[in-house]
Amino acid sequence: MTQIIYGSELSAELKENMRSKVESWVSIGMRTPCLAVILVGDNPASESYVRGKEKACAAVGIKTNTIRLSSSISQEELEKTICDCTKDDTVDGILIQLPLPEGFNEDRAIACIDPQKDVDGLHPLNFGRFFMNQPSFVPCTPLGIMELLNRMECNPKGKHAVVIGRSKLVGTPVARLLQNANATVTICHSHTANLKELTNLADILIVAVGKPKMIDAQYVKEGAYVIDVGVNSVDGHLCGDVDFESVAPKAGAITPVPKGVGPMTICMLLQNTITAYEKRQGL
């Protein structure tokens, strides 16, 4: 029987533990953890994502300081705002809502974040430390994927993991996390030859390509653990990069879309913010 693992359920459990931890700090007179969210422009999707993060933070007791900036500001003004948050001792984590509007340099903006407040794990120093197996923040979606594999009772040690997608947000860091967990990892992408042949060798299959229902049962090994990272809108309905109806009967465990990886990404953002708070408070 295939396990269907809902990130929405797992994240609710993890957030309850976070809420208890924050309440215990506040009850003894410590300040509330704070996440600064910087939103540039009025992109509806970005606005929606920010509201979701604000709601999730409120649910566990994390304060949010959302800074809304006009898309007409300069790169320098944006960087000053980020630096101000970096200097603010009441701010534990800083998140720049991406993508930035056209004309802004995202890499320059991210580089302005204090690495100790970089709860998205995108600062070059954190990325480098992560790949050197040094303490660092790690991007939230890969962390969420590892939590989902744990919920599936999937120990990556000795297993063959295939990751489809090599972005710096998901594919590349999750491949590293799987390597660190002693899996043998193959990274596939748009130029990979014989994709189906490779994915059929996968005990663990992570799909993050942004193509609706690209992966069907022909690509999946019997009993594989399948994590679908994609979120696509087709005819007004959300679907993943995996054809769920086709793959689910063949998989040993699988995440759905929606209610799969998405809730875990936000959950790990909260966890990273709490970790930043703990480090800054010496806990």
TrEMBL record:
Question: Tetrahydrofolate dehydrogenase/cyclohydrolase NAD(P)-binding domain: which residues?
Answer: 139-280
User: Mind telling me which Pfam families this protein's record contains?
Assistant: THF_DHG_CYH, THF_DHG_CYH_C
GO cellular component, alphabetical, reads: cytosol
Q: Name one GO molecular function term.
A: methenyltetrahydrofolate cyclohydrolase activity
Report the pathway entry: One-carbon metabolism; tetrahydrofolate interconversion
Q: Where in the numbering of this chain does the Tetrahydrofolate dehydrogenase/cyclohydrolase catalytic domain appear?
A: 5-120
* Coiled coil ranges: none
Its keywords, alphabetically, are: Amino-acid biosynthesis, Histidine biosynthesis, Hydrolase, Methionine biosynthesis, Multifunctional enzyme, NADP, One-carbon metabolism, Oxidoreductase, Purine biosynthesis
Q: EC number(s) per UniProt?
A: 1.5.1.5, 3.5.4.9
Q: Which reaction does it catalyse?
A: (6R)-5,10-methylene-5,6,7,8-tetrahydrofolate + NADP(+) = (6R)-5,10-methenyltetrahydrofolate + NADPH; (6R)-5,10-methenyltetrahydrofolate + H2O = (6R)-10-formyltetrahydrofolate + H(+)
- Where does the chain bind NADP(+)? 165-167, 231
Q: What is this protein called?
A: Bifunctional protein FolD
Look up the domain of life of the source: Bacteria
